Every structure is written in structure tokens, then in C-alpha cells.
Q: What sequence folds into this?
């Protein structure tokens, strides 16, 4: 355990917390069983813009201490993966095999556990929804033990964990449905809009034709 200054991706309001790097689920359980007054919170790669994974004065579990690709079913596209694994690592492992992550956020340097805790959205949100819509089950470490939950297995706890910002426990691993692809390349359609109204109209039209849509404003 070491006292470390942490911040979010926006690099604002840093704070100090005691960071632990558990090597096993049992060690995570031990940390949760004896929390300090400021509590315990998991942290992945720190890509939240705010202070979601800082826990000032408390304990922070470094989820990246356990990262790895588990079993993968080539027939169904189901992947078992440690929560501390980045989407970058998942894509590097599976894109050559014809599979891609179901939801694509603004950065690939987020962890699977962080994707669950924030229930991240992507540029294809209008087609496929958020990350947890593609999670079959996950392992959740809590102060009273480790549980396996999913949409059909303790669904109330599962959906409280989806976007729950780590407040229901520490996600240990997850089984996620990957998306089949034919190539790692993409066809891009670029439009310029002269004003916001035109931009919104182009986005609405693009949603009907494209799997992914995104816009930005150059000032």
C-alpha cells in the first residue's frame, strides 16, 4: 500500500489515497472486509474526466494489477476478461481474429471494469446501447464475499453495478459479447455543416445509414 496523488483525465482537483494492488480476488475481499473510514474504491486507467476514481483519504484498489484475456468462444464471440484489462488490449487480441468490442468509447485506454462501472457509451450508441447491454455476467467482489451476477442472475445487483461507479463492489472479471467484423478498416463519410441546425440534421440522417456517428466543432 502506498499513499499516491491521483487525478482524473481532466487533471483537475488531484487528491491523495492509499493505493493497493491486489494479486487475487481473495486479496480484494480482504481489502473490502476492513475498509478505512473513507472507504474503498476501484480504479482502472483513470480516464474519467472528474474525480470518479480518486477517493481522497481512502483506499483505492488498482484494478490493473490483474489484467488478462481469458476464454474466448469463437462461435458466439463471448469473451471472459479480467476487469483490469484495457479495451486496447482486447482489440489487439481479437481484431486479427475477426472480432471487435461492442461499444467504442472516445479512448481505447479504459478498462473493462471501468466500462462496467461507468456503463460507457460509444459512437454507435444509437444502434447498440451502452456497454453493459453486452455483458452476460460479471464477478463482483463485495465485503461479504464474491458473487457472479448478470442480467438473468441477480439482475437487481447487476443493473445497480452497471453504471454504479464502483459503489456495489469491485468488478473482478466479466463475460462480454464481442461484435463480428470483416476487416479492421472503416469507410468514412465526412460532411461539413455551416451551423448547429445543419449539423443536427446531418447526424439524424447519418444515424439511419451508419453504425457509428460523431461530430465536433472547430472554433
A:
Amino acid at each position: 500500500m502506498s499513499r499516491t496523488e491521483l487525478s482524473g483525465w481532466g487533471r483537475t482537483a488531484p487528491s491523495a489515497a492509499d493505493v493497493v494492488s491486489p494479486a487475487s480476488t481473495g486479496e480484494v475481499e480482504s481489502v473490502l472486509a476492513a475498509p478505512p473510514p473513507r472507504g474503498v474504491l476501484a480504479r482502472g486507467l483513470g480516464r474519467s474526466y472528474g474525480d470518479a476514481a480518486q477517493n481522497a483519504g481512502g483506499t483505492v484498489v488498482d484494478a490493473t494489477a490483474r489484467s488478462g484475456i481469458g476464454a474466448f468462444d469463437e462461435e458466439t464471440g463471448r469473451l471472459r476478461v479480467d476487469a483490469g484489462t484495457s479495451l486496447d488490449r482486447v482489440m489487439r487480441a481479437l481484431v486479427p481474429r475477426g472480432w471487435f468490442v461492442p461499444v467504442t468509447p472516445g479512448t481505447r485506454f479504459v478498462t473493462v471494469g471501468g466500462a462496467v462501472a461507468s456503463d460507457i457509451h460509444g459512437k454507435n450508441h444509437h444502434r447498440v446501447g451502452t456497454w453493459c447491454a453486452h455483458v452476460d455476467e460479471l464477478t463482483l467482489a463485495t465485503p461479504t464475499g464474491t458473487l457472479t451476477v448478470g442480467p438473468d442472475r441477480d439482475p437487481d445487483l447487476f443493473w445497480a453495478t452497471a453504471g454504479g461507479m464502483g459503489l456495489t463492489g469491485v468488478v473482478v472479471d466479466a463475460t462480454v459479447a464481442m461484435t463480428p467484423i470483416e476487416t479492421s478498416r472503416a469507410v468514412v463519410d465526412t460532411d461539413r455543416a455551416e451551423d448547429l441546425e445543419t449539423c443536427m440534421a446531418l447526424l439524424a440522417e447519418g444515424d439511419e445509414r451508419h453504425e457509428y456517428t460523431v461530430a465536433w466543432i472547430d472554433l
Observations:
- The mean pLDDT is 95.
- The longest strand covers residues 135-142.
- The chain has three domains: 2-64, 66-180, 186-219.
- Residues 1 and 20 are 5 Å apart (CA to CA).
